Amino acid sequence: MSELLKIRRQTQVERRAESEQRLLTAAAELIATEGFAAASLERVGATAGYSRGLASQKFGSKDGLVTAVIAAVIARSAELLVARDSDSASPLDSIIAYADVILLQIERDPFIRAYWVMMASAIANRLPNQTQFLAEHEKVKARLSGLITQGQDRGEIDSSVDPDAAALSIGSTLLGIGIECLLDPALDIPRVRAAALATISRTLAASTKV
């Protein structure tokens, strides 16, 4: 393959990646600020600065757009966790890091706010794609439950804690804060974030009493 052809192909890949990111960003901002119904594929394309049909070509349908935004939220969370080197932390620290990343995203990132709006819309309207959100939440619950079990094995997390129930409780706390933020944009998220992290830590930490 000639160098010129390689450059052209790389440029095409870069252009596709850029257009997809711009479309996803436009979708997230529309959904977060105006609601799920406002983010038609045509409007997403126009808001991103492309032809109105490009979003349809990229995502195929509104359900396809939902799937893409969910994937983007998960990828962004994973990148933030990697940046914090959470995999090398203790189980309890990894749980706190995960909760902190989600809460920071709620505070700063329109993508996760769009996620909550889409989920609320799916539940309120009994849409079939609510199963996508349930599936992702089950993955998070399994991950947190596994970390809790690991922490119990190490003596770091209270052995009386029910891993599955505690994992669900942590996820529900983060979910509730996200929904509350949508209801009250003036919510003092840093204050709530600090309280939530302290509560999770106190709930899970093994007793130091002798």
TrEMBL record:
DNA-binding region: 40-59
Organism the protein comes from: Glacieibacterium arshaanense
Keyword Transferase recorded: no
SUPFAM superfamilies for the chain: Homeodomain-like, Tetracyclin repressor-like, C-terminal domain
UniProt xrefs under InterPro entries: Homeodomain-like_sf, HTH-type_TetR-like_transc_reg, HTH_TetR, Tet_transcr_reg_TetR-rel_C_sf
Keyword set, alphabetical order: DNA-binding, Transcription, Transcription regulation
Domain (HTH tetR-type) ranges: 17-77
Name of the protein: TetR/AcrR family transcriptional regulator
GO molecular function, one term: transcription cis-regulatory region binding
